[in-house]
Amino acid sequence: MNHVTLGQSGLSVTPICLGTMTFGEQVNEADAHAILDRSLARGVNFIDAAEMYSVPARAETCGSTETIIGNWFAKNPGARQKVVLATKVAGPARGMPWIRGEVSKAGIIEACEGSLKRLQTDVIDLYQIHWPARNVPAFGAIYFDPAKDRPMPSIEVQLEAMAELVKAGKVRAIGLSNESPYGVHEFVRIAEQMGLPRVATVQNPYCLINRAYENGLDETCHRLGVSLLAYSPLGFGLLTGKYDETGLVGNHGRMALFDSMKAQRWGRPEALAAAKRYNALAREHGLTPAQLALAFCYHHPKVASTIIGVTSVTQLEQCLDAWGTTLSPELLKAIDTIRWELRDPAQ
């Protein structure tokens, strides 16, 4: 795999990133360390975490993912220097009272200090705001409602906090997550206007059943030089085919294990119906559903790096082996035909 540069940051990463939100809930520490070992051995140099992980979010496991990664660094001298480490500060509380209520300047700095301690490192390579600190449709909401606006720390204040962390050498580059075209544009505009750190990346969902990124955010990122980190390329498992026969029950996948996830965008009946169409298309072309879904993201010119989440070394190997899968122009056209009909049911 050739490395790619994230935005204007100078960070050089593999086009596959190991997502770790299962560490501490579905994956115990020993198994997580085995996944990290194998990922590094296979050449992946990019790891993504968040202060609120593992998922589903619970007070008891908040920060557990970062702790597991930090313990891995402690056990493997030299590993930290081999990876680009990304993590995220939580946005305003979304039913999680154990996380601070707003993304204030002091809150961002405090959160970073906590992540550094858990990760057992002196610096975070890419520090991201997990979701916007303002009223914005996200996580399945699609309509902006100005009546929901509330006082929140400004983008300038958030960037000033990031500037302090960068100046102190605790953060190398910054990014956003679950952002809109407006948000990305404003973060870049204000940074350039005020001489503050410029966002390098936006981490948003992008997969066959959610291509909302292409509804305007793609142009914003292209013109502003912001790289896309695509998460949920397998649509929370729907695009592996494992739910095709059983539905979201009678299965060991996260959508079957956790009722809270069934209520999210990935649990919509329309999302599963669309996934079945893409999964059938994959089989018609001699591919597994996962190979089709991953190859679509891996080799898409709009994606800088694809974040894969696994619960075993076996799953990791399968995801990495899919790197060699290419999709013909005819197959890509068939994918677009389904999208034209079904649009983005997991948006």
UniProtKB/TrEMBL annotation:
Pfam families, per database record: Aldo_ket_red (PF00248)
Q: Which InterPro entries match?
A: AKR, AKR_Detox_Biosynth, NAD(P)_OxRdtase_dom_sf, NADP_OxRdtase_dom
Q: Does the keyword Oxidoreductase apply?
A: yes
Organism of provenance: Hydrogenophaga pseudoflava (Pseudomonas carboxydoflava)
Record keywords, A-Z: Oxidoreductase
Give the top-level enzyme category.
oxidoreductase
Residue ranges of every copy of the NADP-dependent oxidoreductase domain listed in the record: 15-338
Kindly give the Gene3D superfamilies that the UniProt entry links to this protein.
NADP-dependent oxidoreductase domain (3.20.20.100)
Keyword Translocase listed? The answer is: no
Q: EC? A: 1.1.1.-
GO molecular function terms here?
oxidoreductase activity
Name of the protein in its database record: General stress protein 69
Taxonomically, the superkingdom here is: Bacteria
